[in-house]
Specification:
21% of the residues lie in helices and 29% in strands. By secondary structure, it is an alpha+beta fold. The chain has one domain (4-186): Protein Transport Mog1p, Chain A. The chain has a seven-stranded antiparallel sheet with strand order 2-3-4-8-7-6-5, sandwiched between helices. A two-stranded antiparallel ribbon has the order 1-9.
Length: 202
């Protein structure tokens, strides 16, 4: 099923089925999963959802930067921005922005991924110098007890995007905003039973 329409954004050229890339080599892709969503909580249970997602991302070695519920067309969607270490490099990160639109028995995900190239950690170094080490690292607002993964710090905050307009995190944060304006939901997908939360498995 093609659940979302209008995913083809200006500046992204096709590189495969339901995938495109831009001049930065950011990759925009659309996915459909014919399985019940594996989200850890209902979309209207924000604190539990964000807490569980933070722990899940940390266990995978990454860090959840933002998670919120927005609307894609008429349907609620989970918007996430996260960071992951690059597995084949000693430094650098990949940033992923996504919308997950869940229904009771399936889901669709549209995401954009951008990877640091060349000199890495420049944004972090500049922000650290401005705010000082005592104010740089913070407890994660969604899960203060989270352990492992990439640390939560103020350089990932949206307030620094204007100072670093070409940084991969800035680009990843910008693209989902454009998607929310451009994308519509296919009527057949919108008519499916809604996602009410995870199903208990016995």
């Amino acid at each position: 099923m093609r659940a979302l329409l209008g995913v083809e954004l200006p500046g992204f050229r096709p590189v495969g089925d339901d995938a495109g890339a831009n001049d930065h080599d950011d990759v925009l892709s659309l996915h459909f999963f014919a399985l019940a969503p594996d989200l850890p909580a209902a979309l209207d249970d924000g604190p539990a959802l964000r807490n569980a997602l933070t722990h899940h991302t940390a266990r995978a070695g990454g860090g959840l930067i933002e998670a919120s519920v927005k609307r894609i067309g008429a349907l609620p969607a989970l918007r996430q921005i996260l960071k992951l270490p690059l597995p084949d490099r000693p430094s650098g990160q990949a940033f992923i922005g996504s919308y997950t639109v869940p229904r009771a028995g399936c889901s669709t995900v549209v995401k954009v991924q951008a990877v640091e190239k060349g000199m890495t950690s420049m944004r972090e170094a500049v922000v650290l110098a401005q705010v000082g080490p005592q104010d740089y690292f913070r407890h994660h607002p969604y899960a203060p007890d989270v352990q492992g993964g990439l640390p939560f710090h103020v350089a990932d905050h949206a307030q620094w995007d204007a100072e670093f307009p070409d940084h991969p995190l800035t680009r990843v944060r910008r693209t989902p905003g454009a998607l929310a304006q451009a994308v519509s939901v296919a009527p057949d997908f919108a008519a499916l039973p809604p996602f009410a939360g995870p199903v208990a498995r016995g």
